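User: Here's a chain of 158 residues. Predict its fold as tokens.
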Amino acid sequence: MDYTFKSNITPFDLWRLSMRRTYRSIIGVCNIVFTVAIIILTGKFFYQANDILQVLMFLGCILFPVLQPFAVYLKAKGQAAVIPQDMELHFDERGLRVTVGQQRETIPWGKMRGIVKEYKMLILFSDARHGYMLSDRMLGREKEIFYQAVKEKIGQSQ
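Assistant: Prediction complete.
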């Protein structure tokens, strides 16, 4: 096993991950229920309400389908800005070697916590809260082979 990938995570990758995780949780269900409810209430009471209430109803209708994704994108853009652009991830028999400029860090397979398949990406967790995102653009046709190889390495070391 010997794979090398240059990290090129975009704000859109981070946004997509965040939105998928939100809408696959109870929070996403609550967002959808709130949005449907406010749209129904707005449709029923919009013309009976005064101007201030109409504005609030309109804002309620666009809160989760428009404003939240926009705010999440702005946050993702800030996160992507601090990711080093020259990061290289090298996977071999010993583990993961991360290279940024002249700095190197090696994380043995025994320290890896797992790998997760997400939509159009893989996430390799180095601990419970931190990991390395590998998009389909980076992996190309090697995605499934790489995923199985890493899963096997992590499984052997635990």
